[in-house]
Amino acid sequence: MSIFPTRILLATDGSREAELAASTATDIANTTNSELHLLTVAPGNPDPIYHIHEGGLRYETYQQAAEAIKREAQKVLDEQVQKVEEAGGSVKEAYLRVGERRDQAIVHLAEELGAGLIVMGSRGLGGVRRALMGSVSASVVHHAHCPVMIVRPEKERAE
How far from chain centre, in Å, is Cα 141? Predict the structure, then answer.
């Protein structure tokens, strides 16, 4: 039995913090010869919105807004797969989940895959914002069946 994970789940949203997590997950997967799986979760239940375009104001239906969100999330996922591969990593499979809370989608997929490690970035919200908005990473740490690595950028030093 190995102490190293055989499957790593990288949860990514394309942010700077998520890209740092991707680099870390790629290094770990390569070093431990583990499978690397990527997940992006698109927010669900978009509000119908108005867009200003050349012809004036245009109303976008719920279905159109949902499709736009899904396309954008798929684009983020595809870009992250490409970046991992450009960095010398190999993605076993990439997943797009829609309409599920981010923390729940991450935990559920990790369980489905039998992941040995979840890697994700953290924006490092302050206490008030975390209390109001919740923290995806804190919830994943609390509910995951396996170890979770939260990758945070070094704080910029004042010079």
Answer: 14
Please give the Cα distance from 35 to 37 (Å, whole number). 7
Q: 27 CB contacts (<8 Å, ≥6 apart)?
A: none
Cα distance between residue 157 and residue 159, in whole Å: 6
Cβ atoms < 10 Å from Cβ of 157: 5
Global pTM value = 0.83
Distance CA 139, CA 141 (A): 5
> What DSSP element (H or E) covers 119?
strand 117-121
Backbone torsions φ then ψ of 131, nearest 5 degrees: -65, -40
Could you count the other beta carbons within 10 Å of the beta carbon of residue 115?
27
Q: Which pLDDT tens digit goes with each residue over 76-105?
A: 999 999 999 999 999 999 999 998 899 999
Give the angle 87-92-95 at the CA atoms, nearest 5°: 100
Tens of pLDDT, residue by residue over 3-44, are: 788 999 999 999 888 999 999 999 999 999 999 999 999 987
Q: 46 to each of 12, 67, 141, how far by Cα in Å? A: 20, 10, 27
